[in-house]
Amino acid sequence: EVQLLESGGGLVQPGGSLTLSCADSGFTFSNYAMVWVRQAPGKGLECVSSTSDTGGATYYADSVKGRFTMLRDNSKNTVYLRMNNLRVEDTAIYYCARDPGFSTGADYFDYWGQGTLVTVSS
Amino acid sequence: EIVMTQSPATLSVSLGERATLSCRASQSISSILAWYQQKPGQAPRLLIYGASTRAPGLPARFSGSGSGTEFTLTITSLQSEDFAVYYCHHRGTFGGGTKVEI
Q1: How do A10-12 and A116-120 pair as beta strands?
Q2: HSE-up of residue B4 (Cα within 13 Å, Cβ side)
Q3: Is the CB of residue B13 less than 8 Å away from at least one CB of chain A?
Q4: What are the tens digits of pLDDT across the range B14-37?
Q5: In this complex, do B93 and A101 lie within 8 Å of one another by their Cβ atoms?
Q6: By the CB < 8 Å criterion, does B71 face chain A?
Q7: At residue B26, what are phi and psi to the nearest 5 degrees?
């Protein structure tokens, strides 16, 4: 059974940092691209970052470029999202998801974690 | 940057009725489109990818169609568990969502 389990969310002050983790099981992790998608309270979905199966190609939304870093450790079946210089508008539930279509440019997200809440507030 | 626009924002339907949700791309995206369903307090769930391919286990009452700039998600004979928000998605860009309510 495919499982994605996020952790690391919490309350942080503006300007602070946080690292999210997504531990995956039930599939050959190193064969799949992964993505972080966030959802602000009461709002829609926003892709924050995605990375290829090897981690050799990583993309970021303009809203987080230069502040967020997505990494993966294929030996631990885990992806990370390092978030620096956090802003109030980064407050959201952060989901990790698997992307089987990344390599063909036809990405879609077939399995999702349950999400972890990040709250940026003073 | 491609913009994905969904309509209507809210769709009021009755049990057993047909629901038709629309998604429009600001430029042609071939058939590179996915649809997701999200219920309150839950993560999104993949329904359709490649504009018309159903995800494994998805009931046959869900279908996707379209190509280029116009896409449709159709739910025939709405069930109680189908009331949710639906999002279309193209290469990292989501539409604003359509809420299907009673």
Answers
A1: parallel
A2: 26
A3: no
A4: 999 999 999 999 999 999 999 999
A5: no
A6: no
A7: -70, -15
